[in-house]
Amino acid sequence: MRWPGTLFARMTLVIASVAFVFQILVVGAIIFFVMLPQGRHAGDRLAGLLVDVAHVWAQVPENQRQAYEEDVRRKHAIHIQPVGQERKPLKKVLPFYHVLESAVRLRTDRTATLYSSTDEAGKSWVWIDIPTRQGPIAVGFDRAMHPQYPTLLIVMILILAVGAMAALAVSAYLARYLTRPLRHLSAAVRRMGTGQKPDVLPEEGPEEFVHCARAFNRMTAQIQDLFAARTTLLAGISHDLRAPLARMRLALGMLTDKHEPALVSQLMSDVDAMNGLIERCLEVGHGFEETQKSVDVHELLRSVVEEMGIAPGHVAVVAGTDCHVHARPLALRRILANLVDNAVKYGGLDGLKIELDCDAAEIRILDAGPGIPAEQVDRVFQPFYRLEPSRCQATGGSGLGLAIVRQLADANGWRVTLENRAAGGMLARLQLAPAWPQSHESGSG
Q: Which CATH architecture does the domain made up of 290-444 adopt?
């Protein structure tokens, strides 16, 4: 048997198992310490009554035996008849019959065998041959008149079954109640792992969970403070660097007529590259606090390509009609702009194709570039990692574009992947499924 994987299932199984074992022990104790002793006592009393009835019958004069038989039948529901009547061996399912046979054998010092028969009224009788001075005589009793405990056993089995189901239900409820804080903690950790701000955990329940929730909330606040400090630091550095860069560019512009134009142009290009790098660094720290709202992805895509000077004909809706999502529009715009820019930079406009699948909640950007070696596909999402090792901005970029794409996607619960196409080029796939329910709700409306 495979052990369940979740804490909820394990706790339910353990609690239910303990409760079920306890019920079995209780039922066993009732059987062995209550039912069996009572059965032995009842069997011994019945055996004594049967033997006494047979012995008294043998001592009664023959002319009075019929009256005696009627008296015994009326008082004790015991019948007396000669041995040899039609009957069959009794199937001794319950231990009571074994106890009765043993008790009769001890009193008569003879082997005792039980038989059964059914009369014309449908009553079931149990017979046993008891030796007397007049010879063996068959003495029988109505099975329904003596304790055999079949009904009690059935009731106890039903109680055990109902108790097991009740134990399972109560165990499931207790396990769910006890693991609820852990489920909240797990969801908050997963949310934080994707870069999103988790909800504040309720500091309630058992003391251990309260301490854990309080520590997690404190850690979350500290991490948010670190993010805010990082953004503030980057903004400050940007402000402090852009002012001297602006003065450098102005000075270079004034030197164009007095110095080598090629050298001045190169220096101005370097200044522009530094400004671009600063903007990229700032993008890493921005976009997480933006408010979500309804966004038409098709219109957003068209505006992105138009701003980049790309013809809208490169964008095609391949499935579905309503492509609205509930998302952060600026974050989505930055992701799409970076992916489209990479596709144009390495594959050119001729091979660019942007597909929007509203049914699958997916955007696919295809290019005709050289592709990426398979072993480096995941590494290109690392900050400052570039396939071109020269560190030249013109040929390798800043190495931050895809890192920004991955961080923004993770922060919004989206998934971005890169794949090499069989026909050549790359396929950038952005899956927005977690943010897509508005499209399906409007479609089912």
A: 2-Layer Sandwich (3.30)
Which residue, 150, 153, 126, 130, is CA-closest to 140?
A: 126
What distance in Å separates the CA atoms of residue 191 and residue 329, rounded to the nearest whole number?
20
The predicted model gives 237-264 an average pLDDT of: 67
Most confident of 62-76, 108-122, 325-339: 62-76
Asked if residue 339 lies in contact with residue 300, where contact means CB atoms within 8 angstroms, the answer is no
User: If phi over 0 gives left and psi between -120 and 50 gives alpha, with beta otherwise, what is residue 297?
Assistant: alpha
Instruction: Please state, rounded to an integer, the average pLDDT across all residues of the chain.
Output: 78
pTM: 0.47
88-89 and 114-118: which strand pairing?
antiparallel
Architecture of domain 7-153: 2-Layer Sandwich (3.30)
Q: Which CATH number fits domain 200-286: 1.10.760.10, 1.10.287.130, 1.10.3720.10, 3.40.1010.20?
A: 1.10.287.130
